[in-house]
Amino acid sequence: MLDTVKEKSSTQTAAPHPLDPLTADEITAACTLVRAAATSPENCRFPTVRLEEPTKLELAAGGTPRRAFALTLDVVTGEAIEHIVDLAHSEIIVRKVVPNREAPYGQPSVMLEEFFKCEAVVKADPGWRKAMVRRGLTDKDIELVQVDPFSSGFFDFAYERGARIVRAVSFFREHLQDNGYAHPIEGVVAVVDLIGGKVIDLTDADPIVPIPRKKRNYGAHEVTNPRTDIRPLHIEQPEGASFRVDGWKVDWQKWSFRVGFTPREGLVLHQLGYQDGMRKRSLIHRASVTEMVVPYADPTANHFWKSAFDAGEYGLGTLANALELGCDCLGNIHYFDVSAADNNGKPFVMQNAICMHEEDYGIAWKHYEFRNGLFEVRRSRRLVISFFATVGNYDYGFYWYLYQDGTIQLETKLTGIIQTAAVQPGEKYKWGGMVDDNLGGPTHQHFFNVRLHMDLDGGGNTVTEHDFVPRPWGHDNPHGNAFDTTTRVLSHERDAAAIANGETGRFWKISNPNETNSVGNAPAYKLVVNPSPLMLAQEGSYVRKRGGFATRHVWVTAFDRDEKYASGDYPNNHAGGDGLPRYAAQNRNIENTDIVVWHSFGHTHICKPEDFPIMPVEYAGFTLKPTGFFAANAAGDIPPERNSRSVLAGDPQNADGASCCHKG
Q: Where is the AGAO-like N2 domain (predicted)?
């Protein structure tokens, strides 16, 4: 089977599992009920519609009702209301007004229809049009200008308090497919009141910076000299893939889990477990990326306010791509279609939103024993579950990897187009790197936060922090080569807000102290933190208050069903202080209880010419590795490849160079 597609999952069984995403019929039922109860049904919009998930305890008790969460926004009054709908009884059981007019404010995410509304409002504004004319644009040019609505941040300006606003920046284009980011219009920023439908503040700065006019397009039809020496690469699985899919339930070798999806987070993994002999062992109840923030380091008018919370202000799931075979995914693919609600509450299908396939990952383990000629090698295989979201100029891929030895990995892929700044001729850009003539890229950071609701072997879990430290010279270290591992039990939430330390190799273990492994210790998984920056914005700055989760690499909190997101429920136009810093300030017990581990990781980006016009993929992420969880190498039972050939004793290579997996 060459690069073929398996049947896609978009249909539900007659009785959906309590964790399955909402069906199209359920979306229709929930939104119809909520709209009918609205004060002005014609003005009712739906920024978010998702499953209201049951907790672990509710699932264990059984008989879990299907419920929908529907957030509405009145586009005339600006009132936002949360609803929880009991789908079986067609009843709204919770109705709560969002207090977005009171400090610290906070708004529902920006809706797709508001992107188009913003552009129309800006282009109709006389002040903005005058600013375009000042920069040499004609009426015909103005119609082609690209207007980018951008979540506005918060700086306590009077017009921000309790308002539903976006800031808009503009880019010149000669035609619709021209790369506008090569032609930023510097010094012009419009603040748009989305409820009032008007520009309420306009920056038109002096001196005028000329618009860079050099074309930097990247479409295949504009690449004049493409490579000609690339031959096809086929991924073949003639007997099909090794995974089994039943609706949203997946089994792959010893792994099992359920796939979920929400408008804010996108891909969710539920009830992740591993079959260890006769025992199915639970690892993580729920895993997802709940937030990311991208703060910029340029203090000028076009950029100081840029700090997009791409999950909470736009919705990673809302902006998911339709993935394409041979481009986004390669091999024997299983796609999941996702039912979603548009801004009017009408269901539609997000085609190919999630991609799942197997990948070869090199050597899993290997040894050649020269004394007796025993030569064994096994190849590693991993299961990949992924989705991609395009948020304005950037594109983000989220790839969960499950390995045969029990390892879990999340890798984020950062690509797309950088934000740009016009630079005066003959000058250097002060707030980042030059990427082309008169064109700079502002230095910025990307921070992601993953939420891991742990369930290691069920029951209570505990997190410990460990460092490697040299042992002092002495009678127990006479040669100076000994070093120790320290252990600190994180017993309360304030103890657990921690920063990684590469010098000491700091790591964290999540264990179940109620169980004993084969060597008498608690079974555990180790959180392996990759080198990662922290928020560099100054203490007291609004972006730091709003993105407080990015000031620590690791947080641990007691499970609370209302604490879903690292930045809080409504980071859009929020003054800050919500999310993980607020959760952890409660200082609840986190030892031997139901816990959530949150990990912040990311990338600091100093732009360079190689990042433009399209940025090569940058990677960030983390790994969870079994540490005393299994009694032996969990991948020790991988059989040799069926087409492998034995080697002669004492000779680990065939005479003809063929690869070998074992000597029988």
A: 23-92
Beta strand ranges found along 392-443 (DSSP E): 394-403, 408-416, 421-422, 432-436, 439-442
pLDDT digits (tens, 9 = 90+) for 547-603: 999 999 999 999 999 999 999 999 999 999 999 999 999 999 999 999 999 999 999
Q: Among 380, 322, 334, 323, which residue's Cα sits nearest to residue 1? A: 334
Q: Which amino acid is at 369?
A: E
Domain 249-311+352-627 CATH (choose: 2.70.98.20, 2.40.50.100, 3.40.50.1100, 2.40.40.20): 2.70.98.20
Tokens coding 511: 């264990």
Active-site annotation holder among 274, 394, 403, 542: 394
What's the predicted TM-score (pTM) here? 0.95
State how far Cα 291 lies from the chain centre: 7
Domain 112-216 belongs to what topology? Nuclear Transport Factor 2; Chain: A, (3.10.450)
How many Å from the N-terminal Cα to the C-terminal Cα in the chain? 30
d(CA 163, CA 277): 57
- Which one is catalytic: 20, 74, 298, 310? 310
| 619 is annotated as an active-site residue | no
Amino acid (1-letter code) at residue 473: W
Instruction: Please report which residue ranges of 541-588 form alpha helices under DSSP H.
Output: 542-546, 580-584
- The two counts, helices (H) then strands (E), for the chain are 8, 32
- 394 among known catalytic residues: yes
DSSP 224: S
User: Who contacts 42 (Cβ-Cβ below 8 Å, separation ≥6)?
Assistant: none
